[in-house]
Specification:
Helix content is 6%, strand content 44%. The protein has one helix spanning 2-23, and strands at 28-35, 49-54, 60-66, 74-80, 85-90, 94-99, 104-110, 119-120, 126-130, 141-146, 152-157, 165-167, 173-178, 181-186, 192-196, 210-212, 218-222, 228-233, 238-244, 254-259, 265-270, 275-280, 287-293, 302-304, 310-313, 317-320, 326-329, 343-349, 352-356. A five-stranded antiparallel beta sheet has the order 3-2-1-28-29, with no helix packed on it. It has a four-stranded antiparallel beta sheet with strand order 4-5-6-7, with no helix packed on it. The longest helix has 22 residues, at 2-23. It is globular. It starts with a helix and ends in a 9-residue tail after the last strand.
Length: 365
């Protein structure tokens, strides 16, 4: 009798689970492209705001959201699942929160410093805003803001030209790029854990894009005056390998580095050469295996969809990550190619945000 009752309960649970799955709406995946990009003029869309593309319908434009404040020029665009919000930073400098479910700006703050590529803790309680690649001296570093209202919590001073920031996929660490230095901070208290310097190369802004693996062991830092990257051991605070593309060094800056989610490949951007170079990241140092031509110049950027299928760049080009084939072109409602380097992936189900991506191509293994 006891076994019969147990079997009945298990069957009921399985039936209820099946009904729930049947009643659950399909997950819709979108690419949110913010515009205008303050860092490039190529491929700019008309107007200011967000263009939304359907990832599973050939990256066709679904709609646009007009946000006049974006006309100040977007410097960063980071999303948070907990708060179902996107946090934008502009050249003004202005920092704000945009609710992805209501299409409304929740709050805005302006500060004398701070407007570069921002990031957000996994719980959405803190926003990290680099002071900007154009800021040097004692003020350069990081603004820590309250995620609820944008109010300043603290100002952390770290190196010159604080530019790119990202929070690790496990939420434990904050990575900040300054002039030829990569700093790792604890997201609990913003205390410095590691600093690696010199890293990358000087040139231009001096604080170039980077990516890290999911274990927070290895970082790949773009070079400032050649096409290539440094492979960094974060715990040992040292460069393991200095990798250049080509038999003869290519004297272009690298402004984009991304790991595939499974961490098997590293893709880097040759901004001036209008190319992406692909490396086998299962070997150390990573080995060059191929390249992809881009349709235009621009800021230089590369990242991947959460499932690793698509490659997105600072161009209108969308590539298949496995075949390297061009599979779509981002276009506005008039059929004109559009692009930028500030975009995020957002998944919806029944009008609720269920997953968000990152501007940076992070390892997610």
């Amino acid at each position: 009798m006891r076994n019969f009752l147990l079997l009945t309960v298990l069957c009921s649970l399985a039936y209820a689970s099946t009904l729930s799955a049947q009643n659950q709406s399909e997950t819709k995946r979108y690419l949110y492209l913010s515009t205008p990009d303050a860092a490039q003029v190529e491929g700019q869309a008309d107007g200011a705001g967000i263009l939304i593309f359907d990832i599973d319908d050939g990256h066709k434009l679904v709609r646009r959201i007009d946000l006049p404040v974006f006309s100040e020029g977007i410097r960063g665009f980071a999303a948070n699942l907990e708060n179902h919000s996107a946090y934008f930073s502009t050249q003004n400098p202005r920092i704000g929160a945009f609710d992805l479910e209501t299409d409304q700006i929740i709050w805005e703050q302006t500060y004398q410093l701070g407007s570069d590529r921002s990031s957000v803790t996994l719980d959405g309680k803190k926003i990290y805003v680099p002071t900007g690649w154009w800021v040097s001296g004692d003020d350069s570093g990081l603004l820590v803001l309250n995620g609820e209202n944008g109010e300043l919590i603290k100002h952390v001073r770290i190196g010159d030209s604080a530019h790119n920031s990202l929070v690790s996929v496990d939420g434990r660490f904050l990575y900040l790029g300054t002039t030829m230095m990569l700093t790792v901070l604890d997201t609990e208290n913003e205390e410095v854990i590691h600093q690696i310097a010199p890293v990358g190369e000087s040139g231009g802004q001096g604080a170039f894009p980077f990516t890290v693996d999911s274990a927070n062991r290895i970082a790949y830092v773009s070079l400032g005056s050649h096409v290539g990257f440094d492979v960094v051991d974060l715990a040992q605070e040292r460069i393991l390998h200095h990798v250049l593309v080509g038999d003869e060094p290519i004297e272009h800056r690298t402004h984009g580095a991304a790991l595939t989610p499974d961490e098997t490949e590293l893709w880097i951007s040759d901004q001036e050469g209008r190319k992406l170079f692909i490396f086998d990241a299962t070997q150390m140092p990573p080995v060059l295996t191929g390249d992809v031509d881009l349709s235009q110049g621009g800021h230089g950027w590369v990242t991947f969809s959460l499932d690793g299928r698509y490659v997105w760049t600072h161009t209108p080009d969308v590539f298949d990550a496995e075949t390297h084939e061009l599979v779509a072109t981002l276009r506005d409602e008039n059929g004109n190619p559009v692009s930028g380097s500030k975009f995020i992936e957002v998944h919806f189900r029944d009008g609720k945000v269920v997953a968000v991506g990152n501007e940076f191509g992070l390892g997610r293994r």
